[in-house]
Amino acid sequence: MRLCVVVGCLLALAGPLPAANILLNSSFEYWLLGVPVGWLTSELLYPGSAVQDSNSNSGTYCVKLVGGDSAAFVSTVTVVRAGYSYNFSGFVRVPGVLGGSFLLQFLSLQGGTVGSPELLPAYFSGESYREYTRWVTAPDSAAVLSVSFTTLPSLEAFVDDVTLDDTTAGAVEEQRETWIGGRRETAAGVTKVVGLWAAPERLERTPGRGQSLFDPLGRRVTGRPARGGVYFVIRERQE
Question: How many domains does the chain have?
Answer without folding.
Answer: 2
